[in-house]
């Protein structure tokens, strides 16, 4: 599966909002939820490829679905 390297945190959170997630709170990390799942992402650029892959998987998306939302 291709890696998701070099994704800006603002672009990633925007894509997750398109997927139905809403920001609950922000500090050093961004917490998002869709009512059933909670995602936590860092607020630094770029997001590490392994971290981004884990966030996408936890959101229930494939890498290809996530890339289309970017």
Protein traits:
single chain; alpha+beta; 70 residues; 39% helix
Give a quick summary of the entry:
With 70 residues, the chain is α+β, with helices and mostly antiparallel strands. It has three helices and three strands.
How would you portray this structure in words?
It is a single chain. This protein is α+β, with helices and mostly antiparallel strands and 70 residues long. The protein has helices at 9-18, 49-58, 63-69; strands at residues 22-26, 29-33, 38-42. The two termini are 17 Å apart. 24% of the residues are buried.
Which secondary structure elements does this structure contain, and how are they paired or packed?
Blueprint (H helix, E strand, L loop, with lengths): L8 H10 L3 E5 L2 E5 L4 E5 L6 H10 L4 H7 L1
Antiparallel strand pairs: 1-2, 2-3
The coarse silhouette is: globular
Adjacency order of strands in the biggest sheet = 1-2-3
Our estimate of the beta-strand percent is: 15-25%
Main pleated-sheet profile:
3 strands, antiparallel
Helix fraction bin? 25-40%
Rounded to the nearest angstrom, the distance between the terminal CA atoms is: 17 Å
Structural class computed from helices and strand pairing = alpha+beta
Task: Return the average pLDDT rounded to an integer.
Answer: 91
């Amino acid at each position: 599966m291709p890696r998701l390297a070099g994704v800006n945190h603002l672009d990633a959170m925007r894509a997750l909002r398109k997927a139905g997630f809403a920001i609950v709170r922000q500090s050093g990390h961004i917490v998002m939820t869709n009512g059933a799942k909670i995602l936590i992402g860092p607020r630094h650029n770029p997001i590490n490829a392994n971290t981004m892959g884990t966030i996408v998987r936890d959101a229930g998306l494939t890498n290809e679905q996530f890339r289309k939302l970017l």
